[in-house]
Each structure stands twice: as structure tokens, then as C-alpha cells.
Amino acid sequence: MTITRLEPIERIRTATLDVGYHETGDPSGQPVILLHGFPYDIHSYADVAPLLAERGFRVIVPFLRGHGSTRFARPDAPRTGQQAALGADVVELMDALRIPRAILAGYDWGGRAACVVAALHPERVAGLVVVNGYLIQDIAAATKPLTPPIEAGFWYFFYFLTERGEAGLAADRRGVAEVIWRRNSPLWPFDDETLDRAAAAFDNPDYVDVVIHSYRHRLGYAPGAPEYDDDERMLAAAPTISVPTVTLDGTADGNFPATDGSAGARHFTGPRIHHQVPNAGHNLPQEAPEAFAAAVADVAALPSQEESPRPDPTIRIPVNKPKGRP
Q: Is 33 in contact with 94 (CB distance < 8 Å)?
């Protein structure tokens, strides 16, 4: 079997990073930036990117900091993985590419980065597609426990707080990813070649530092970099998102049970659609590329806040759940 690779990989220097990214589609089309999660890479969008290109979008798929060919521009730059840094990276990439506004779409770390930009820089976001709803972290509430089954799925959060966990990630990046993938997406029959393709991105020299800082910071065990303090203060207030949004939940997500979208509705003040995607797990764009691409098309068609001054922020299109799933 021949496995699809997003090629060629281009590079561009931003204020903080030397970003590796794939671009496809119409250069004059509506820009869409597709943001991957952890522990994944740009190939979460191997099937989504061509679908969007066929629809006339300009599609940009960057490696996040610490992944793939993306490098820090300065050797002394802090290798942070905090949410404010991820969001700032997206804005700086848009500036470097001279993109004033774009649709941002992502899941996991990438979805969080997209939410950060949509909340803090709504003028830069034409629309938002995000898996699992509002992903801005409430770090002040990090000590509040979740239910035991959900905590079990987040074992690596706590593993990475320890020296043992840092050493374990450094020793077997692919192995850690495989365990997380299987828990995150219990119905996704990925093969070794698919995992190997993603794991190549974990060979980045900054991968371990960025990942470890990300999880220590989100649980309150590591400080952030001073340059992101102002953004982190704003994020601590759980700012609302006013841009047109499509939220997605996979009904086979091993860590995040699918919802009807109502619980997080207060965070979205603009036009919003919520979909459940049958049989999809946490890596939703790779597991259900047609549904993810359709969500991007949906958000592109939603009116902006200016065009629709009194939107219903809890528009929902329910999808029947497959039997046997929560």
C-alpha cells in the first residue's frame, strides 16, 4: 500500500519560528490553516487538504512548534508548549504569509491554538472549526479532578510531570504515541505505516522539551515564558469566541464523550453549528476527513457577527449515535 504524504514541505521564517508547512489549493482562494494535535502531525490532514483544495480553498498545514521540520529561530528561545505560545505561532505564521484573515481548523493542541487566536484576535479569524468545543485551558482549575475513567485516559499528563516521564518520552516517542492513539481512537484501525509517518515528526530536537513544558504548564507545575504573560492573563478569564464556529465531537473519542454542544455554548457568542461525527475518535480529521472538510465548508458559509447581529450560539444538528457508544 502506498501511503499519502503531504509534499512538498515549504519553509517560512516568522518572528519566533522557522515553520515547515505544506500548501495546496488555489493561491487566491479563502485561506484555511489546518492545525494538528499531539501526538500527531500534519498527516492528520492528508485526506482533508486535497478535499478542501478541490473546493477552491487555499490550504496551509504547518508543523506545530517542536514537530517535523519546524524549528525555533533563536537557539536561546524558550521551548514552551503553553497555549498562548501556540496561538501566537499561528498569528505570526499568518503575518509571514501575509494572510490578514483565515479559517482556522484543528483538534487537540491545534484546536486550542485556533481557539486562542479566535478569542484574542477575532479580526484575524474568518471562521473556526474545532473538535471537542472550547479548548482554552483553565489553568487555575487544574487541580480539580475529573472522573476516574477520564483521568485514566490522561495518564500521560501526570507521567510527564516526572523525570521518569520525561525520560520515557525521550526514549520512545513512537511508543508513547501509539498508546495514546489507541486510547484516543479505539475504533480507528491505523497501521504501523500510518504511525511511522507521524512519528517521523517526533524526531524534532525540540519535541520533548515542548511537550513536557506543555503538560507541566497546563497543570500549574511550570511557569510560562514572560513574553506570553499578557496573553495568558487574558486567557485565564475564559474569553468568549465571537467568530462563526463549527464544533465537532466524535462519538468514538476515547477521552471526550460526545456531547450535544450545549455545555460549552456560553463560550461561543457568534453563529455556531455543532455536529456529532459517528465512529470518529480524537484524531477526527484523519478518521473522518469528509466530515471535517464539510465542517470547513459549513463555517465558510456562516454569516459573520456583523452580518448576523443576533445569532443563535447553540445551533445544533444532532447525529444519531451508533449503538454501544456513550
A: yes
Q: For residue 304, what pLDDT is reported? A: 79
Instruction: Report the amino acid identity of residue 60.
Output: I
pLDDT at res. 305: 61
pLDDT tens digits, one per residue of 301-317: 999 765 544 333 333 33
- pTM of full prediction above 0.90: yes
Set of cell numbers at residue 134: 472550547
List the grid coordinates of 59. 490550504
Q: How far apart are CA 101 and CA 38, in angstroms?
A: 25
Do residues 44 and 5 touch, judged by C-beta distance below 8 A? no
Q: How far is CA 98 from CA 12, 28, 88, in A?
A: 11, 12, 15
List, in sequence order, the alpha helices (H) in 133-191: 148-153, 155-159, 163-171, 173-184
| pLDDT confidence of residue 49 | 98
Cα(318)–Cα(279) distance, rounded to whole angstroms? Answer: 14
Non-local (6+) Cβ contacts of 114 within 8 A are: 33, 35, 90, 104, 105, 106, 125, 128, 129, 130
What DSSP character marks residue 223?
A: P
pLDDT digit string (tens) for 115-156?
999 999 999 999 999 999 999 999 999 989 999 999 999 999
Is the Cβ–Cβ distance between 213 and 92 less than 8 Å?
A: no
Element (H, E) at 49: helix 48-54
Q: What are 164-200's pLDDT values in tens digits?
A: 999 999 999 999 999 999 999 999 999 999 999 999 9
Q: What is the DSSP string of 65-106?
A: TTSTT-EESSTTS-----HHHHHHHHHHHHHHHT-S-EEEEE
Give the closest residue to 266 by CA, choosing from 248, 251, 245: 245
Give the sign of the dihedral formed by CA 149, CA 140, CA 109, CA 166.
negative
What letter represents residue 229's amino acid?
Answer: D
